[in-house]
Amino acid sequence: MNKISLHLVVLLLLGLTLLITAPIALQLVIFKGGKMTRSGVSGTVEYSIDGSLWTSEPEQESSIADPWYARIRITGPGYSGPIVITWKLVDDDSGIELLVKNNFTDYTLSGSAGDIIYCTSNGLGSPGYNWGPDTSTPDTYYIETIVQK
User: Fold this and answer.
1) Secondary structure element (H or E) that encloses residue 15, with its range
2) For residue 13, how many C-alpha atoms fall within 13 Å in the half-sphere facing its CB?
3) pTM for the full model?
4) What span, in angstroms and rounded, lies between the C-alpha atoms of 69 and 44?
5) Sign (positive or negative) of CA dihedral 115, 76, 91, 99
6) Overall CATH class of domain 25-148
7) Complete DSSP assignment for 102-141
């Protein structure tokens, strides 16, 4: 291997290393269907089948034709500022992600408990995205969200 080829290999490996390790976004928290992992933000995913009564209980029964919705309720003080949320529809049995709404919601957290964020482009507008048509097979599903700043 000549000197030029060796330099190119080293530069290529260095470039790949930087590309792989470069941070794209700082992840704050993952909320998973009634559960959450805390990292500067605390909250839970809540569900509704009618858009008016919301619960964090992940086990709700609805028929195939019924709409259902998910939102995030911030339950404690923490990070204040802009965030981007990715919403994931996950099959509970297999853990397979069935639908990903990547970087779908732009929202600004207040830093205090009480923020409610719907699955819409700006986090406002109850009840938000209807997951019903995406869950037309009898099964158990949950919503996982990734919150990044």
Assistant:
1) helix 3-21
2) 6
3) 0.75
4) 14
5) positive
6) mainly beta
7) EEEEEEEE-SSTT-EEESSSSS-STT----GGG--SSS-E
Q: What is the pLDDT of residues 12-63, one digit of tens each?
A: 443 434 334 334 455 544 556 665 544 678 889 999 988 999 988 756 677 7
Q: Give how far Cα 6 sits from Cα of 14, 99, 119, Å.
A: 12, 44, 50
Cis peptide before 67 (omega within 30 of 0): no
Choice between 18 and 9, residue whose per-residue pLDDT is larger: 9
pLDDT category, 136, cuts 50, 70, 90?
Answer: confident
What's CA 5's distance to the chain center, in Å? 44
**Domain-by-domain residue ranges, the chain?**
25-148
Contact 69, 60 (CB under 8 A): no
> How far is the C-alpha of 101 from the C-alpha of 103, rounded, in Å?
7
Please tell me what DSSP assigns to residue 75.
Answer: -
H/E stretch holding 1 reads none
